[in-house]
Amino acid sequence: MPTNRNTFSSLAAWRRRALSRAVHRGWRWVQETGAVTADRPGALRFRRIGAGTRLAFPQGTVFGEPWIELGSHCVIGEQVTLTAGLMPDLDLGPDPILTLGDGVVLGRGSHVVADTTVTIGSDTYCGPYVYITSTNHSYDDPHEPVGRQWPRMEPVAIGPGCWIGTGAVILPGATLGRNVVVAAGAVVRGEVPDHAVVAGAPARVVRSWDADKGWQPPLRTPAPVPIPAGVTPEQLLALAEPGETAGPSAD
Q1: First to last CA, the chain
Q2: How many C-beta atoms surround the C-beta of residue 143 within 10 A?
Q3: Strand, helix or coil for residue 75
Q4: Per its UniProt record, what Pfam families does this chain match (predicted)?
Q5: pLDDT at site 250
Q6: Ordered DSSP codes for 98-116
Q7: Residue 251: its pLDDT value, please?
Q8: In degrees, to the nearest 5, what angle opens at C-alpha 180 toward C-alphas 220 and 76?
Q9: How far is CA 24 from the centre of its chain?
Q10: What values do phi and psi take at 50, rounded to 5?
């Protein structure tokens, strides 16, 4: 027969498992309930929030919502900061300050700080912890602490279809063209042309697209093979498993 010690140990283990399941279920409920959408904005009153857009819970710092426009079907990760203006409760005029196009993705922990206009084009994807700002400290006076000197502000414009890697920083005055790739950890300033890949700190163009020659320097990996028509998600999963083969039906 089991000893009292074993009985109490089994009961304690069962209680821990039950508590763990309850905590995880509760947290999923909190995440779902705390998410912000056009239908459920909570306390946030954005100038516009498009259909299908979702801000995951918990949100980061958000203020100046009346001057923030979010397009449709945007995905805003957890702990993302979105701010318009230097501080809350300012009157920033009649026009939007921060604008996200349709289908923009901001990864977890990213910051978009718009003290003057910041525009992110449609279908731009940002990895986690990307920092985009239209404001930087000035240090003109060598006798005054940097934090006490009035900051400089310059608009930021990011074109549609860009991919901004994890930890990249987009500085005031930066203008990125269409379908620009920013490498992880890059620090971008100035103008970046369409269809360019930039890397480094400060970032520089390391690859670009030429209509006659293609990518220069040439890509080192082959282009992805398109998925054949008729292949189901289940067949793709089967192909990914070692020793399995699958394909569309011959019928």
Answers
A1: 62
A2: 4
A3: strand
A4: Hexapep (PF00132)
A5: 42
A6: EEE-TT-EE-TT-EEEESS
A7: 44
A8: 115
A9: 25
A10: -75, 165
